[in-house]
What we know:
The structure is a single chain. The protein is mainly alpha-helical. Helices cover 50% and strands 10% of the residues. Strands 1-2 form a two-stranded antiparallel ribbon. Helix 4 (53-75) runs antiparallel to helix 5. The mean pLDDT is 83.
Amino acid sequence: MLTIENADEYFSRHLQHQQWSALSTEQKDAALKMASDDICGRLKISVLDETCVFQLCAAYEQAVFLASNIDRLTAGTEILSENIDGVGSRTYRAKTDSDFSRRALLFLERIPVPVPVPVGQLSRG
């Protein structure tokens, strides 16, 4: 189940344990809600299948990714370079499809895709 307690357990032996532990209960709850919505949107489903370990792991990975990168994700552009020599200059680029944790995407790729049965096909059984 996607709860703060289960997320705390998931991150207890994770390299991003300190980042997750430093969040308040409200931040953790918000990160899990946003991550769940992101994963559901990516999979085109309305709710996570809590029996699918890959969906849960993807949601946890997305939650810590969102919490760690929220400022960059909401900025709209990223600074590529900055030169402060006299007047100064900055170079920006538009946000790319980096709204997802690479680890979350790896978990999502592992979810088996069901093969649809053609409509009107009968089978003998």
